[in-house]
TrEMBL record:
The lineage of its organism: Bacteria, Pseudomonadati, Pseudomonadota, Alphaproteobacteria, Hyphomicrobiales. One of its GO terms (cellular component) is plasma membrane. InterPro entries: TM_pro_TauE-like (IPR002781), TSUP (IPR052017). Keywords: Cell membrane, Membrane, Transmembrane, Transmembrane helix, Transport. This is Probable membrane transporter protein. It comes from Martelella alba. It is a multi-pass membrane protein.
């Protein structure tokens, strides 16, 4: 599983440097490696672990009010996304996941060029619902929050901090929903691979901590977008080839 372990390692580094990016980098390559259902579940499990690590360092800056406003719509999005994705077989589900990734990446890039929107209950509810659905479909719901950040000019420090408990909750809900709908979505990996995933995550986080001393978060975010785009296009091509 070189592709899987490499993507987890790079995702952990970028998550530690910029506070975001783990699922964006890991999801497309994981979906290629083990399929869309198991891939999404694995990415969310790893995402919970990485978010917990980051949260321990930024918990003082979490905006808990925004976190709570996001949750109800996110739960609805998870439920609707689970119902939708359960209707499609492997290849079609992989194509849908890849297209969702590309759409979310485009939204995150263009959101900063739009006029500034208020960060109120309406925009938070819309972003939360979209994030819930996109997490189930492609494992990249955090990108919806990145678009919200850009569109509402949300302060980077507060955004990264608030994103961590939200991703922990969102990813946990996604894993539960996916497994409830399809128990075979549990990643069928050997103990060796599970151990390797844990190892590369830890090493990636440690390396990212050192890298963050000289690499700017903005540059890490740009690298995240580039790798995510490559991965999404590769996943799309892989899904089409399986039709």
């Amino acid at each position: 599983m070189p592709l899987l372990l490499t993507s987890v390692f790079i995702g952990a580094i970028l998550q530690r440097v910029s506070g975001i990016g783990f699922a964006m980098v890991v999801a497309p390559f994981t979906i290629i490696a083990i399929g869309p259902a198991q891939g999404v579940v694995l990415v969310q499990m790893c995402g919970v672990a990485s978010a917990i690590i980051v949260l321990t360092q930024v918990v003082r800056d979490v905006n808990w009010k925004i976190y709570l406003v996001l949750l109800p719509a996110s739960a609805v999005g998870i439920i609707l996304g689970t119902v939708f994705v359960s209707r499609f077989p492997g290849a079609e589900a992989e194509i849908i996941s890849a297209l969702v990734m590309l759409l979310m990446l485009a939204a995150s890039v263009t959101a900063g060029y739009l006029k500034e929107y208020p960060r109120n209950a309406g925009t938070l509810t819309a972003a939360g619902g979209l994030a819930g659905a996109m997490t189930v479909l492609a494992g990249v719901g955090g990108v919806a929050l990145t678009s919200l950040k850009e569109a509402t000019r949300w302060d980077q420090r507060s955004f990264v901090a608030t994103l961590q408990p939200y991703l922990i909750t969102l990813s946990t809900g996604t894993v539960i929903a996916r497994l409830a709908a399809a128990p075979d979505a549990w990643p069928a990996l050997s103990a060796t691979v599970w151990g390797g995933i844990v190892a590369v995550m830890v090493v990636g986080m440690l390396f990212g901590a050192q890298l963050s001393r000289w690499m700017k978060a903005r540059h890490a975010a740009q690298l995240t977008l580039a790798l995510s785009l490559i991965g999404a296009l590769a996943a799309l091509a892989d899904g089409i080839s399986k039709l």
